[in-house]
Amino acid sequence: MAATVLNSERAIEMSVFVVLAFVRMRRAIAANSQILAKLAEMERRLENHDADIQDLMDAIRELMDPPQPDRRRIGFEVPPGSAKSQNKATKVRTMSLPNRP
How many CA atoms, within 13 angstroms, populate the side-chain half-sphere of residue 85? Predict the structure, then answer.
């Protein structure tokens, strides 16, 4: 605008300089908004990945320490209340050695 009032080379140069400065500023703001949008998208992805990684770690921990299966014992068990289960006293057998002369 100064170039229209002041009819000089310097005023024209300054007018062009101001217009170029505004063009550069607009480009910088546009680039920053794109960068901010990309950063926001990356943060959102990382939040999702963190939750997925935590779920994966929990599943691995479960697989590393599985619950013990409820197994039946092998062998014969005397039913409760039977005559043999009530007479569980063990007999001790001793052996006597003959006396040596």
Answer: 7
pTM of the complete model:
0.34
CA angle 25, 30, 34 (to 5 degrees): 145
Per-residue pLDDT at 1: 59
Per residue in 5-21, pLDDT (tens digit) is: 777 888 888 888 999 99
Q: Give 45 or 77, the one with higher predicted confidence.
A: 45
CB 20 within 8 A of CB 6: no
94 residue type, one letter: T
Cα distance between residue 2 and residue 16, in whole Å: 10
Q: Could you identify the residue written with the tokens 């007999």?
A: 91
The dihedral through the CA atoms of 37, 40, 44, 46 has a sign that is: positive
